[in-house]
Design brief:
Largest sheet: 2 strands, antiparallel
Low-confidence stretches: none
Order of helices and strands: HHEHE
Shape: elongated
Strand order of the largest sheet: 1-2
Helix content: 25-40%
Distance between the termini: 54 Å
Number of strands: 2
Number of helices: 3
């Protein structure tokens, strides 16, 4: 009876350890396990980012890595589409 109780406690302990290892980590630029190699995080501070067209967005919110949608006050005019230009974007090699 005592051994069965200890085995049950051990199994519950191992299951809780495995559950902690299998938790989902949401992607962000602060996490070392997901999208840390995304070169577009904080693009306005690293590259020349310009926008043109019938509307404009907050570029800092667009590239901050929080995955929060950015909306404009007005709709995009099909005759003058929204264009986002990122200049000096070079391919970076990561190890």
């Amino acid at each position: 009876m005592k051994n069965t109780f200890l085995i049950l406690i051990g199994m519950l302990f191992m299951q809780s350890l495995m559950a902690q290892q299998e938790q989902v980590i949401s992607p962000s630029n602060r996490s070392a396990v997901s999208l840390e190699k995304n070169v577009l995080f904080y693009a306005p501070s690293h590259f020349k980012v310009t926008q043109s067209g019938s509307t404009s967005l907050d570029l800092n919110l667009l590239f901050d890595g929080n995955f929060i949608p950015s909306y404009s006050i007005s709709a995009i005019d099909p005759n003058k589409p929204y264009v986002l230009l990122i200049e000096n974007l070079q391919m970076r090699m990561y190890k």
